[in-house]
Amino acid sequence: MMSTAAHLSRLVVLVMGLSLAAGPVFGAPAVESSEEGETEQRKPQPTVDEIRWQGNEVLSGSQLQAITFTRPPTWKWWKPDPVFSEATLVGDMKRIEALYQQHGYYEANASYSLRWNNRHTAVAITIEIDEGPPVPILELNLTLASEADFTPDQKSRLFEDLALREGEPFSSERYADARKQLLDGMAEIGYPLAHIEGGASVDVETHQAVVDWRIVPGPTVYFGEIEVGGLYRVDERTARREVSIHPGQRYSTSALARTRRGLQQQGLYSWVGVQVHPTSTSDAGRDDAGAASRGPIAWPVEIRLTERSPYTLDLGVGYGSDESFRATAGWRNGNFLGDARKLRLSTLYSGILSKGEIEFTQPYFFDPKLSLIFKTSLRHETEPAFTANRFLPSIGVSRPLGGPWRGRINYEFSYQDVIQTSTEVDVTLDEPVGVSKVAGLEVGIRRQTLNDLLKPSEGTWLDLAVTPSVSELGSDFDYITLLAEARGFFPAWGGSVLAARFRIGAIQPLRDTRSDQIPLVSRFFAGGSNSFRGFSYHRLPPFRAERNSVGGTSMIEASLEWRFPIWRRLGGVLFLDAAQLDLRPFRYQPDQLFWAIGPGLRYDTIVGPLRFDFGTLLNPPEAATTRYRWFISVGHSF
User: Fold this and answer.
1) Closest Cα partner for 572 from 76, 74, 72?
2) How far apart, in whole angstroms, are the C-alpha atoms of residue 211 and residue 396?
3) Do 553 and 484 belong to one domain?
4) Which of 1, 192, 474, 558 could lock 578 by a disulfide, CB 3.0 to 4.6 Å apart?
5) What DSSP line would sit under 366-401, residue for residue?
6) What is the pLDDT of residue 282?
């Protein structure tokens, strides 16, 4: 057995261990920290109060700020100011000078000065840039191997808009861009094995640069056999409709890109791969003579596709300030009866619209790029100005016109029974109630370069349409509708986006039809979450009308938004809206526009941003009961 002394000794050791781990115990003297040491630990790190740029003309402050690690304070007041580190700032000066050298300013110098506050807890930084003179390109010598099989047009396009030009500043960035541009241009015309000999010499003392390049094309490359694999439900003939290359065709990077893009747009595949397999004779492309003696080369192409299910079922419910409760259901077959035909069935119920709709799309309609679209719907519309039942069949064609342009021609027929109208409509328009027919031929063109359809941050959108509705087409009324809309999205500071929209339209009566006889279902209405946020849905009155919601035959809508991130998925918006309706066609009076401003919140979801806007009408009419409106919806206003 363990003795009593042994037990006591183990207890002493245990107590000593606890004392070392938990601090002084049993009256042991505590280790005191000096007041100066405690103050040193509690002293906060200095922060950056502001950053100013001086002397920079070639590069903007935002360009320079993008490559520096010392950050200025953000407008987000709830976030702490960035911590200041002078060692980091010294490294930033080197990064700034390196960026200038990339742009051809090899003698650029960056320095800084500091201005501290009284407590030495925040610092204002001034960064001074001495850009120095640029190094221009004295000579740009570009030569092609004589054996290259170029047409004059191909040669001119190869050197067109080259990133390097004589007399302009030389930079490593432009040098690399020009080199890539030349090699990409060679690949586009059948020389993917081309290479460039030579280089550039830069003399900083004399401020001159000379670029001397010799382009060796290598052998001409053609497409070989084209294999399509991975299909089990889609017919191979359907996939090959979008293959823009054929065996024996000269190699072209744009043709490969068109093939990939066309297959993706069929909507039948979750993954599209287009791969060229160079043959072993590709080593011939490194011969000084261009390997012309070995003859052309054929590279086989492999297209691998992963199919997705052609069937889609959509169900949704929601609430919006314009529509109140909303429920939707839809079914879609993306390969109806094969050949990428599309059939869509959908229903919608809301406080302003209930409808059932069928849409059928026949691609490759007498032309590989022409699509036939048939659509029909039954609708019950409950508008502020009227209530109507409508039957709307339409048939038309759509075709890309090159680049981002797409054209369309649609025959649209509307059979409507207006069963109820507001008092304002009864006293303003001629015989608005009853059964009537409207038939028109819409001719439209659209240009779209948006980077994202749900949440665009860059690009433009333009749509122009002319729709004559005349008796020869089956219409009870004769008039022509002109409508134009433009949208632009521009990246701004701090990840924010400036968004703008302008919409203008006119309805011109023809023959014996008067302006007050234009049917309600065809008139312009404004107001609401996606229109003008100073009035409720379709409540904006025409010019010189106090509270009439009768629509107009002239219309202007404009919006400007600043969309900015706040925290994670939460974003904010500041908007300015303007709008005007008039009972007469082509009458626009900018000094009589209605104006509205307000803030908004956006929360990103998989179906688009959840939106809350609060609009204030700046110049309400005398009969207006309120100048404030709030809106809840899904998706951006435009």
Assistant:
1) 76
2) 55
3) yes
4) 558
5) SSTT-EEEEEEEEEEEE-SSEEEEEEEEEEEEEEEE
6) 43
pTM (2 decimals)? 0.80
Residue closest to 600 by CA, chosen among 568, 556, 560, 540: 560
- Rounded Cα distance, 24 and 16, in Å: 9
* Largest pairwise CA distance in the chain: 124
Residue 92 tokens, joined: 């930033």
The encoded tokens of residue 528 equal 């609401």
Residue 360 lies in a domain: no
Min mean pLDDT across 34-48, 104-118, 164-178, 189-203 is at 34-48
> Is beta strand 324-333 parallel, antiparallel or unpaired with respect to 311-320?
antiparallel
Q: Is 81 exposed, middle or buried (0-12, 13-18, 19+ CB in 10 A)?
A: middle
* Stretch among 27-41, 371-385, 511-525, 529-543 having the lowest mean pLDDT: 27-41
| Domain span at 89 | 45-130
Q: Are residues 608 and 503 in the same domain?
A: yes
| Rounded distance between C-alpha atoms, residue 245 and residue 261, angstroms | 13
Give the contacts of 461 (CB within 8 A, at least 6 positions apart): 446, 447, 448, 449, 450, 485, 486, 487, 488
Q: Note the pLDDT tens digit of each residue in 473-503.
A: 999 999 999 999 999 999 998 889 999 999 9
Contact 159, 178 (CB under 8 A): no
CATH number at residue 261: 3.10.20.310
Residue 506 token pair: 């006119």
- Residue 193 has what pLDDT? 93
C-beta atoms surrounding 380 within 10 Å: 15
> If you ran DSSP here, which 8-state letter would residue 267 be given?
T
DSSP string, 109-126: EEEEEEEE-TTSSEEEEE
What are the pLDDT digits (tens) for 561-609? 999 999 889 999 999 999 999 999 999 999 999 999 999 999 998 888 9
464 and 522 inside one domain: yes
What is the C-alpha to C-alpha distance for residues 295 and 218, in angstroms, rounded to an integer?
A: 10
- Tokens (6 digits) for 151: 């047409």
Q: Please give the average per-residue pLDDT across 329-335, as a whole number.
A: 97
Residues 236, 199 share a domain: no
Mean pLDDT of all residues in 381-387: 95
